[in-house]
Every structure is written in C-alpha cells, then in structure tokens.
Amino acid sequence: QLQLVESGGDLVQPGGSLRLSCAASGFTLNYYAIGWFRQVPGKEREGVSCISSSGGSTKYADSVKGRFTISRDNRENAVYLQMDSLKPEDTAIYYCAAAPGGFSFVQNMCFRPRGYNFWGQGTQVTVSS
C-alpha cells in the first residue's frame, strides 16, 4: 500500500520551532517532488513549500520565506519541514504530497494541489501562548 505519513505536529509557543517529517511506505520518494501544504477550517489548502526529487530545487510561499526550510534524505525515504519563528497564523493541519518531478515541477506546479498524486493524512500544528 502506498502511503505518506506526516509527523511532528505539536502545540508550540509563538517564536518556537517544530520539525515536520513526511515518510513514505510502499514506494521510494527518490523520484518524487514533495510538497507541503496547510489548511485551516473554512479555507482552501495553501501551498507552503516544495522540493524537487533530487533536492536541488526548492520553493517557498512568501508567508514562510526565511522561517521554514524544506529538506530531504532519500536514504531515509523522508522529507522534512523545519519551521522556525512560528507565528499564530501558522496554525493549521500540515499535509505532505508527492508527485513525480524535478526542477520543472517545482517551478510550475509546486503550489497546485491537483498536481500531486499521493497525500498524507496531515499533522496538526498549533502556535499559541
């Protein structure tokens, strides 16, 4: 069974940090671009960041630039989202998604949910004092 599983969500104070993980089972992530999205109730799913299959190309939403860092370890079959200087407006369910793709995908499809083939179930991030 092909699955993506997110972990690392938690309750954290403003200014704090979290690292989210996206692990794959049933397939290797080596050939897939990975995107991170987030969603709050009543709003559309928002693209946060993505990384190409090789890890050589990344993209970030303006709202998280300079605070979030996406990375991948293909040996571990996992992708990570390091989130620093967290703000209350970062509160959401965070999802990872996979699609075959490299540099071109990151440039053109990164923040388009319909471009992705597999999705995880999400992990809750709450930023509150």
Report on the architecture of this protein:
The protein has 129 residues and is mainly beta. The protein has one helix and eleven strands. The strands form two sheets. Strands 2, 4, 5, 6, 9, 10 and 11 form a seven-stranded mixed beta sheet that branches. A hairpin with a 4-residue loop joins strand 7 and strand 8. The longest helix is centred in the last third of the chain and has 7 residues, at 103-109. The N and C termini lie far apart (39 Å). The mean pLDDT is 95.
Top keywords for this entry?
129 residues; mainly beta; seven-stranded mixed sheet; 47% strand
Summarize the structure in short.
This protein is 5% helix and 47% strand.
What is the residue-averaged pLDDT?
95
Number of DSSP helical runs: 1
Low-confidence stretches: none
Largest sheet: 7 strands, mixed
| Class computed from helices, strands and strand pairing | mainly beta
Percentage beta strand: over 45%
Q: What sort of overall outline do the alpha carbons produce when their principal axes are compared?
A: globular
The count of strands amounts to: 11
Radius of gyration: 13 Å
Helix content: under 10%
Sequence of secondary-structure elements: EEEEEEEEEHEE
Gap from first CA to last CA: 39 Å
